[in-house]
């Protein structure tokens, strides 16, 4: 699990983290609302024009002294009809993986900063994870918003990297040129 503190079951077998709130950034993604822990976020920047409509699933972007591996979730999750109407993604959310590499996720709008109550976080059911076109999350949170509720999928960067790059963390480090 990337960046999320370990969830520990209590006597009732529901996962209750040792913290009360988790600061997150939430953003829309193909009809879902995704969230990443604020602790994993390096920066939100304007996405270079060349990447705003790029349909490649993985790209490379120089950023200062770093290289950012750009993961285009919109393209990866698109059906064939959606691929032709992929939205502009003017922002790039830069995240740092546990093994110190930087990853960028192009997003359509600035993410919302939220304080997610720990009591709202639950493991994502295995059946739902298996039905997802791209495994993105291991946990889900439901937040009441007036008369409706918003379901947030908590992005699991390790899981995402495994499925995007087809490698475990050690292999991802080798692909990116970093060695442990």
Quaternary class: single chain
Unreliable stretches, pLDDT < 50, 5 or more residues?
1-16, 168-180
Protein structure class: alpha+beta
**Percent of residues in beta strands?**
35-45%
Shape: globular
| CA gyration radius, whole angstroms | 16 Å
Number of strands: 11
Helix content: 10-25%
- Give me the number of helical elements: 6
The largest β sheet comes out as: 6 strands, mixed
* Overall mean pLDDT: 75
Q: How many angstroms separate the termini? A: 19 Å
Biggest sheet, strands in spatial order?
A: 8-1-2-11-10-9
How would you portray this structure in words?
It is globular and about 40 Å long. A hairpin with a 5-residue loop joins β6 (91-96) and β7. Strands 8-1-2-11-10-9 form a six-stranded mixed β-sheet. Strands 3-6-7-5-4 form a five-stranded mixed β-sheet, with no helix packed on it. It contains six helices and eleven strands. It is α+β, with helices and mostly antiparallel strands and 180 residues long. Helices cover 19% and strands 39% of the residues.
